[in-house]
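Recap from last week: sequence in, structure out.
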Amino acid sequence: MTVQLSKRSFLKGLFATGAALPLGSLAHAAVSEIPQKWDRETDVVILGYGGAGASAAITAKDAGTEVVIFEKCAQGGGNTAVSSGGMMIPNNRERAIAYLDKTYDFANSQKDAELLEAFVDEAMKSKEFLLSLAPDQKVYIYGHAGFQNIPESDAIDKWRFRTPKGQKTRGGDMLFNNYRYAVETARKIPVVYNAKGLELIQKDGQVIGAWIEIEGKKQAVKARKGVVLATGGFEFNDKMLSNHTMGQKFHRLGHPGNTGDGVRMAQAAGADLWHMNALSCPLGLVVPGLETALQINMLAPSHIYVDQDGKRFTNEKLDNHTCIYAVNALDPIKHRYPRIPCFVIFDEEARKRGPIIGGATSGYALNRENYKWSKDNSAEIEKGVIVSAPTIEELAKKINVPAENLVATVERWNTNIKAGADKDFGRPLEKKGKVAFEGREAPIVSRPIGEGPYYAAELYPTILNTQGGPRRNKLGQVLDPFNRPIPRLYSAGELGSMWGHIYQGATNNSEACVFGRIAGKTVAAEKPWS
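Predicted structure tokens:
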């Protein structure tokens, strides 16, 4: 029988007897039960089977190491499979570093220069890696930098797999299908499903395995070389969101399996956390009966966003991933978030232009719940997702905003745009520069709101993923608060992502692929602890 002592009791007895342990041992003293007998064992335990876990497994296996992947859900893929399948690959090292560096500075996000350089160096090899996953695949550039007003943005390209003719596989599934082929068919790496990571097992300050609940049974899994955490974010954990982010009434776009398991495991093992308040968070719409929301993407130019007072508050041409920062303003006088929800207002021409989620390809609702938005938005009007009225005044009453404000807001918008400029927030009239995402950017960006009927829909922050979690170094090692690696513990992907507040599309898939490979290479080089 194993006798368990609390950490407090252990330290009390230690100091009473005058005994001493190395500082590193105290820093990472075991906090979980050490099993008397292991249920399973392998060289490398990988928790999570999305792009990060797959990349780590492939690289570690290719280095001659035995690997087992444990996936919490009944199937793999995570956010990778329900994403648009894109991957950011720089075309110039120095310029890409300069561009990405700037995304941290003005947003006051913690930055690690060594980590950024390691990312760019490895990311420039990603095209070759992607083409190595499965035979007869083709990749192409579909977009460019999300923030083209930042110097050196031309150094950023976005790549993804081309869907073969005759198939309808979406981008994220194309990407993960190739990962799956490389893992399961080409390398025959074992994948255990319905296997939830519970806690890391530590001895003498090093991670030696993990407690994993497999098909409802708690099992001890030994990791002779190390553990790679690739469990995704915490966007489906309301408690963690309330503690780490500004805003309310969050809805989600991504995979429901992301509930913060890896964050808790890493914390218990002594990890430092960073970027916990950083989100990839578009605005989206809630359709009754769906588990997740859908991202708005207006291709028609005759629309505006207004708050609960019926007033515009932003340039609607936001980068999709950063919309949260336009709406999370707390009013401390009236005790409310006046922009959560906010509303999109549009005219009949915009309704007929096509779905107000036009061009959207990512998200769980589209890729797993298989929701089909109607081509003319009529089904969503019937469901009450979109409300309509013959006049702006009546529309205001239906969405409970001051009618005089909404009428004045629409009139000011129309007057300014007819005069040739959005004087309030600088929304451009025409699209200029490179496309950040093909098929999701209209060439005409701004036009007056014309003839009715008029339409409105509630918009909420809809999180694609969180960025926060355990901080890692350039080798993929998880760090403690004193910047020391926790022995034999690694991470990859959006769990502890390197990206801060200013996240842009295709960089989470890229980071998952890059640091999966880096972590896989480093953990494979470890000497077995037993």
